[in-house]
Amino acid sequence: MRKKLTEFIFFGNYFYALCTVALSMEASLQQGVPLNTPAYYLLLITGTIVYYSYAYMGELHLFGIFSSITGKPRTAATTNSYYNRRTHWYTRNYKTITITQFVYTLIAIGAALYLVIKEFHEIFSLHGDEWLMLLLVPLVAFFYYGNDYFPFIKINLRNSGWLKPFIIGFVWAGAVTIYPVMFYKWQINLHYEISVMSVWLLIKNWMYISVLCIMFDIKDYADDYNRHLKTFVVRVGLRKTIFSILLPLIAIGLIALIGFTAGQHFKWGSILINTLPFIALLSVAYSMHKRKPILFYLMVIDGLMLLKGICGIAAALLFG
């Protein structure tokens, strides 16, 4: 029972959804705005589950129903035995997932329509930069898989090699840093204005999540190598990726965090709590020289996003 529940939460992408909520709440509190309405978080949760489940299930019918031509879903790694546990889970549950995907898609559409009609009264009076921020993140997310699942699209950002983790990091950072505050401002009929704090938080989340994505590329080494996808670990090897890329990036991020927060006169208790995720990130990155099971990546590496969100929320509530 515990095994089935664990697989359901992590393979079903519910843990990703939890991470997006935690990081979004962190961003709201750190930028001094109230939390969003339940409809916003419902859209965020269902949108995250639908996006990642579609990605793992393989080819997608244009109307949102999985292609059943082959009788079974095609995942991105069916040829790699390292992914068998997740692949088998999707194979065993593909009918159920197809139904839940359809339901979650309807819920996401309903939540989005509710926000537009009931909450965002001035949405058609947005400034150009607001439209840009609103549309850029989902467009980049859409083109990340591109012609993998939509043959009529010629762009596939997933094949961008060493840029791939930074593309994923940008999508996550935009969704959990800009959107929570921007959507709240729209709910109270105000325009979203970029601030020093919002730019800092965007860059911090972008780099933090990009580092996690580089760690995930270590898991995908064999598959990326066979596909001639030049990720960091394929280009320079495991040891250099850890000691010449991951650890220096994390150290720079930690130093920048301490410097910025001290310069902004954050309380030292808040600074200390916010450094904990970076210290944990250093520890996990150093341990990456040994091969790990897939659930390690989903629980521990992705868990660092949840840890960051929890620490940020705690620091904001305890120290303002």
Q: Can you summarize this structure?
A:
Keywords: Membrane, Transmembrane, Transmembrane helix. The chain is an all-alpha fold.
What does this molecule look like?
The protein is mostly helical and 320 residues long. It has one domain (2-319). 72% of the residues lie in helices and 0% in strands. Helix 7 packs antiparallel against helix 8 (196-219). The chain is globular, with a radius of gyration of 20 Å. Residues 59-82 have low confidence and may be disordered.
List keywords for this structure.
320 residues, mainly alpha, 14 helices, membrane, transmembrane, Prenyltransferase
Radius of gyration: 20 Å
Strand content: under 5%
Structural class: mainly alpha
How many domains, as an integer? 1
Topology record:
Elements: H1 2-11, H2 14-30, H3 38-57, H4 84-92, H5 94-119, H6 128-145, H7 164-187, H8 196-219, H9 221-226, H10 232-236, H11 238-263, H12 268-286, H13 294-301, H14 303-319
Helix pairs in contact: 2-3, 2-7, 2-14, 3-5, 6-7, 7-8, 8-11, 11-12, 12-14
Keywords: Membrane, Transmembrane, Transmembrane helix
Protein name: Prenyltransferase
Transmembrane segments: 7-27, 39-57, 94-116, 131-150, 162-182, 194-216, 237-262, 268-287, 294-319
